[in-house]
Amino acid sequence: MDPYRNPFAPGAGSRPPELAGRSVILDMARISCGRAVNGRNARPIMLLGLRGVGKTVLLNEIGWNAEREGLLVSRAESPEGESLARLIFPEMRKVMRSLSGVEAAKHLATRGLKGLRNFASIFKIEMAGVEVGVEPEPGLAETGDLQYDLPDLFTLIGKAAQAAGRGWLLLIDEVQYLSESDLSALIVALHRTSQEGLPVLMVGAGLPQIARLAGEAKSYAERLFQYPSVGALDPVSAGQAVEKPVLDEDATVAPEALQAIYERTKGYPFFIQELASVVWDNSEGPEITAADVERSYVETLARLDEGFFKVRVDRLTKAEVQFVKAMAQLGDGPYAMADIAKSMGRSQSSLGPARASIISKGMIFSSDHGYLDFTVPLFAEFMRRQG
Ligand SMILES: Nc1ncnc2c1ncn2[C@@H]1O[C@H](COP(=O)(O)OP(=O)(O)OP(=O)(O)O)[C@@H](O)[C@H]1O
Ligand SMILES: [Mg+2]
């Protein structure tokens, strides 16, 4: 059918034409935002899921919903190796600046800007354009220890937002890349604002190991956060994700075709978008048939192999590739570390550095004590296809 009218959206972070199967999480976020704004206890949310399940698009949607409700929304994505201080400084500054324009919040926000100025200088963050009329104030967010300074700033933002009758929503993607001390500081800051009943909420997203990382950073993190898991779509939601956009373009899709798409993709959103997009282009229309799905499958796999999967492997060294190959040869995960070592003819301890490095690159995670699994769904099958 006409490729110009193809509604599907393959690609990292691309907004799907139909965000299917996520209403529970969207409602959870909406309620938490509403509670936070009203000074009621609202637990921060950490979306946990594998690669390509739709965490980024969910965060974006949560952000838009919150903006529509009048919250101030900050967005940050943690790139590997970047400090939290640097990452969220510009966001905090934007929020303080916008609050300083509200009469009722002016005083607090100005104090916040002073704190930010100290913060920037102690954490060596260059500020483009010095704050006009803002004198540094000693003793405010300038210990140089993020565990003290971040809670101070979050509290100031929270108080200013409260005075302005607003709320602040901080969205952080790829949380697993934060260092342990940064994650700790973030948890302490959120704990503080929550204890003080301030209208501050964070929604984070990342790989499943975050739950453990957060627990190791601060033992109370387990009770502080809500951890909804974002996974593959069930057959009904997967069907909606495909059918609704097709109907909107005045075409139809046979029930057998929907079922074939579900079976081929196992409900994984990245795969659904890619397959549905190829199917659309290949179909004569106006009805998409199961045969269209079947003849599009190989092409879709080739696209994923060249894109989605390949970019992940390209980040690994040769020795690391051997490691993940050995995992894939064992079948589908999770994989006992002992079995991986055995199949490679190596000792577990000699594989420790490779294991740690692949984990830090976000390719595998420790699913349970002594067990590993891939963070990329269907990755083992991909590795086996490579021979
Ligand atoms: N609920 C959904 N229904 C249909 N398609 C979806 C849904 N959620 C995400 N998608 C599609 O899945 C793909 C991956 O989404 P996204 O980039 O948000 O995943 P992610 O979990 O952030 O992945 P990564 O961990 O690699 O960053 C996109 O093409 C997006 O359009
Ligand atoms: Mg993402």
Automatic annotation (TrEMBL):
Entry-linked Gene3D superfamilies: P-loop containing nucleotide triphosphate hydrolases
SUPFAM superfamilies cross-referenced by the UniProt entry: P-loop containing nucleoside triphosphate hydrolases
Domain Orc1-like AAA ATPase: 21-203
Protein name: AAA family ATPase
Native organism: Azospirillum melinis
Source species taxonomy: Bacteria, Pseudomonadati, Pseudomonadota, Alphaproteobacteria, Rhodospirillales
